[in-house]
Amino acid sequence: DTAVSQTPKYLVTQMGNDKSIKCEQNLGHDTMYWYKQDSKKFLKIMFSYNNKELIINETVPNRFSPKSPDKAHLNLHINSLELGDSAVYFCASSQVGLIYEQYFGPGTRLTVT
Amino acid sequence: GIQVEQSPPDLILQEGANSTLRCNFSDSVNNLQWFHQNPWGQLINLFYIPSGTKQNGRLSATTVATERYSLLYISSSQTTDSGVYFCAVDSGYAGNNRKLIWGLGTSLAVNP
Fold first, then answer.
1. From chain B, which residues contact A within 8 Å (Cβ)?
2. Residues of chain A neighbouring B88 (CB-CB closer than 8 A)
């Protein structure tokens, strides 16, 4: 049974389009995260939610909008996609306060052409 | 803020060899975690090691918090050890700004 799942696994789209990535965790965690991993493997946190409340919003363009309908789900919607948005996006979750013990989804590879 | 540096950036080993990966951090930290990202992209927790030494099979980790470094030892390496190893530390920021600060990783290739 997958602990943290993401859909889709691959996403290829054209510049200017709008797309969403979904994340679900069945670990009972209260905190969820979105990370962006660039081509050089650098992991950058984008957002963090605790029990549906946004708690970290790094300097991410406002074309990126996270939504947490409940504490088991955290979705990422991206408007007006740009070439620089191409990356692998990871969702993760952890128990409240245990930020060092994060469980990651398999990643979504986004390619913008 | 805290800086995390990992070395070496790249490492190539023959199967069976041993290796040591290093993580230096610029300030005192309460929590430190090692992760492995396999060649298929999956990120896995390896060790939570804010201080002291832990072992799990062929892997072990040591953190000397007073000297601000952590080491990950891989013994008798196998091809399945290939991937990127990340060190991440707790930012220590209070409340909602608390987050992990990640190193750039060590990319390991183990050849058969």
1. 31-33, 37, 41-45, 48, 84, 86, 88-90, 96-100, 102, 104-105, 107
2. 100
* Tokens at B51, concatenated: 């201080």
Does the pLDDT value for residue B105 go beyond 80?
yes
Chain B nearest-CA distance from A91, in A, is 11
Yes or no, beta carbons of B99 and A56 under 8 Å apart: yes
Among chain A, residues having any CB pair with chain B shorter than 8 Å are 40-45, 48, 50, 55-56, 88, 90, 92, 99-104, 106-107, 109
Report the length, in residues, of chain A.
113
Annotate A30-47 with DSSP letters as a single string.
Answer: SEEEEEEE-TT--EEEEE
For residues B75 and B14, what is the distance between their CA atoms, to the nearest angstrom? 12
What pLDDT is recorded for position B95? 63
- Please calculate the CA angle A25-A26-A29 and round it to the nearest 5 degrees: 75
CA-closest candidate to residue A78, choices A4, A5, A15: A15
Distance of CA B16 to the CA centre of its chain: 20
- Matching residue, tokens 């390619």: A111
User: What separation in angstroms does the CA of B1 have from each of A43, A47, B9, B30?
Assistant: 16, 18, 22, 14
- Judged against a pLDDT cut of 70, whether residue A1 lies above it is answered with no
